[in-house]
Amino acid sequence: MNELAGKVALVTGAARGIGAGIARLFCEEGAAVLLTDILASGEETAAALREDGYRAEFLKLDVREDADWASAIQTASDHFGGLDILVNNAGVWGTGDIETMDFAELERVYAVNFYGAFRGIRHALPEMRKREGGSIINIASLSSELTQSNTLPYALSKNMITKLTKAAALHCTEKGDAIRINSIHPGPIDTQMMVEVNMPGMVDAIPMKRMGQPKDVAEVALFLASDRSTWVTGAEMFPDGGLKAGVS
Ligand code: NDP
Fold it and tell me: Residue 50 needs a FRET pair 20 to 30 A away by CA distance; which of 90, 95, 148, 242 works?
């Protein structure tokens, strides 16, 4: 129950879905959590956590905006005393193939899914160094590993997260920082984004024959955030009901 006691976490895209699930589990495990999102309803998600007795605040953070990042890091420091854990979770879905996809769509998806995480890491590192360590968790997707003709913007953005994670993780080891950076690549999770994805027959394709829930991802994030994973960095984890095993 106290895996994250004394730790401060910032979660992006935490108003609902996977981000909200991660925020709740981190609170249950003793962390103080700054929930952030572009959606104002994140305030209600944070209020529900406070009603349950947890330390949770909400701040609007558009991951495309450096000014928002700076104020979120400052808020984590002012309200909770620093930053130990960052979960780069905010993401958007985007489709298109090599011929029909326009560059504006590619840029829209990259701006959130890839550059958003990129900015988050850069803003978080100096604050984490002040506490001599930390854990950054990037929510990628199983899509980073699958090749489909018509999901190019999303798959590319998530594939780039894999490389970003490993490069940043090695950078931290080379600097002598005790800051670990890992990625999580969920299979289909029952959230609003899956409504948008709208792929009938999805459950039949999953070896474990059920959709994932936000908690299935949150449990993996908890492991990576906690001191149980102090020798794990630059790694990819796949909560996916066995899907990757079935395709690789
Ligand atoms: P949701 O759409 O339910 O939640 C994503 C949240 O991120 C929304 O509140 C969304 O707000 C917010 N968001 C979007 N753009 C920004 C932005 N620029 N700045 C801050 N917040 C933003 O999706 P999930 O919970 O399903 O997804 C969470 C993460 O998990 C994403 O990175 C997704 O790619 C990844 N993922 C999801 C899977 C799934 O099956 N659901 C599978 C694999 C990975 P708004 O509604 O306004 O866009």
Answer: 90
